[in-house]
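Final report, results section. Input specification for complex C-07:
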Amino acid sequence: MSTSAAVRRGRGRRPAAEVRAEVLAAAGRILLEDGLTAVTFERVAKEAGASKTTLYKWWPSPGALAAEAYFAQSQPLLVFPDSGDVRADLIAQLTSFVRLLTAGGAAGPVSQLIGAAQLDPDLARAWSETYALPRRELGRERLRVAQEQGQLRQDVDLDIMVDQLWGACYHRLLVLRVPLEESVVEPLVDQALRGAARHSA
Amino acid sequence: MSTSAAVRRGRGRRPAAEVRAEVLAAAGRILLEDGLTAVTFERVAKEAGASKTTLYKWWPSPGALAAEAYFAQSQPLLVFPDSGDVRADLIAQLTSFVRLLTAGGAAGPVSQLIGAAQLDPDLARAWSETYALPRRELGRERLRVAQEQGQLRQDVDLDIMVDQLWGACYHRLLVLRVPLEESVVEPLVDQALRGAARHSA
Amino acid sequence: MSTSAAVRRGRGRRPAAEVRAEVLAAAGRILLEDGLTAVTFERVAKEAGASKTTLYKWWPSPGALAAEAYFAQSQPLLVFPDSGDVRADLIAQLTSFVRLLTAGGAAGPVSQLIGAAQLDPDLARAWSETYALPRRELGRERLRVAQEQGQLRQDVDLDIMVDQLWGACYHRLLVLRVPLEESVVEPLVDQALRGAARHSA
Amino acid sequence: MSTSAAVRRGRGRRPAAEVRAEVLAAAGRILLEDGLTAVTFERVAKEAGASKTTLYKWWPSPGALAAEAYFAQSQPLLVFPDSGDVRADLIAQLTSFVRLLTAGGAAGPVSQLIGAAQLDPDLARAWSETYALPRRELGRERLRVAQEQGQLRQDVDLDIMVDQLWGACYHRLLVLRVPLEESVVEPLVDQALRGAARHSA
DNA sequence: TTCTAAACGAGACGGTACGTCGTGTCTTTGC
DNA sequence: GCAAAGACACGACGTACCGTCTCGTTTAGAA
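Structure output:
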């Protein structure tokens, strides 16, 4: 939204950055208000004052546009705290993660985006590269430090541990579709750390 | 597929069961061949020799039809072995579960159905009630027995444990979209049982 | 415009005849108001409350639709008078023909339709079969009677004579694009009958 | 096609004449190969290595460009023979005219251009001024000489006579869309000269 | 000879129409 | 009466072209 944006209403070329910004703003608004299925090229073009041609030039599918719009406006916290206590840090990070997931209810933007990614390879790629894989890397890195510090055993597979923690939340959200509450985080972390077997030795 | 199905080509009434069977067969075939997005009422009606009116009467959405078709033809093994050794049983069950998920690749029917369920409440309900929740119940029950037998600690939250195990697999399949291999099952189960912390006490 | 047409505003099926009538009315109105290029499937569908699918089912191209709409609403007089005097009849018929052509100016519906027919085979077919060829047949028939009655020579090629008379008008309208006035009709007919050579023998 | 045209492939300024020549060549080629509807600014710009901006500067519409391209490459013979015998000259001129019209089939460039002119004022103007009116003037002049020489009656309207002869050909080409053969020329000329009425006096 | 302004190529942009497909509602027809 | 058949309104898709504009480059003409 540059200052001159509102004035310039011709049909000619506008700076790409300006167009992109307006398109992402419109797409993000539609996503939050009416859900992912409402994010169509047709509607975004109309509400952003853009043309369909432009959208097709920049994004491979409506889903991919929605994903980028979501990233753009709710810049997800990617910082992973390191207080020295891995248990506390995991609980903190997972708690804010659960808050992110449950924002907008069970049919929130995140579940819709992950869902649509199962049917839209372009969205899937955007999602994995921009969101999912970097976050896993972040978590794994925090766990690696803890492992070096002796808080975790040497033979722990850190990827699997990430899967256990974050996957458990996704499981309730996407597969079981049961209410996901922050209170599960603490027992979840503890159980992952302590194990379920009676004799851990 | 009744014997007379191919002969009877009139527009009059046919037995409901016969129609349903043919519809489900067609939907299942389309699902496996061309994916979930190809399972439209339009196409199923044409290939099953049914009418759209009939489909709308029995199923609330194409996704729900696809889900039921999938259940009907690949009756998922719901039996949970109980050999007395909970670790071995978990490994066995999770291994066949991974096989189910990876059938048809990362874009297999299961991931597509779960994905579409995030956008289609009717499909979500069918999926949860028919598939996801019963399976969780089954797993929890097996764990409960193990807990009673003293193989698991008393303070373990069995729901969370199911989330940790199955959710870890779903995490790789749906969220990370990385190859899901059977070899992860054993370390996954062990890590859930033993815990990750150095001093489990 | 059936009596119940205005009431029935659902999305379901409507009687084909009713839809066709409304579509043709809208197309004809657009043709007269804004010209042939404004007769697009998109606009006709919107203004007629019809769907594009329906238009594509009934008409092969917007031009063909416009042609049929033109025929439907301005049912062109196809009666050819026979007063016994072929000269008088030709003048009468050509005069009303010139009036038809010049209705709406040089860019009237007729010239636009004939023009578009040079680029749209579907429109060309509709125009030839429905309008042009029948009219030529009518004129030729009238000339044939005159020939039998001895008003025209036996060796006159009646097709060519039709071309000379009607073609002369079309020539000014389409090719030269000069004003076409009714006053040319009488000298045109006389010249065709008497010939231009000094010694007609 | 200047000698350095092929070498100079930068984006900077090129001589106007060179650009115009390449554009007209490309437009003419497209017109003959794929028809008038294929002569779009978009495609001509690409194939001529020119930019749309340049095309818009020189031509008001794709149709006008196509017309000029047609004139440029098939310089139509405008010489009208004067052998002293007006009948022979008319037959000769009309015969080559029919050949011109039928080149490229019934949907040849000429009929397409005249057709499009009914919908494109810019093309209409270019066509009338450059082609149609000069040709009529030429024919009329030849007839005027014949009239002075006493081969045609004094009261003959020469404009109408031109309309009768050339219009008859256009009639078959544009309106009736029936095959136009050279064999019609001779009876056409004779009929125009002798008249159709039994008693020409 | 150097500099500046015009014209060029490239192509992004807002629009409009195309032709197709799927949805969900409805009428008609045949058993 | 019910099911097959399928017409219908609607809306999204992806593409093509139009006419306008911005950008960087190059040449032509003025200094």
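Residues 121-148 of chain C form the longest helix (28 residues). Residues 9-16, 19, 45, 49-54, 57 of chain C lie near DNA strand F (CB under 10 Å from a C1'). This concludes the modelling results for the funded period.
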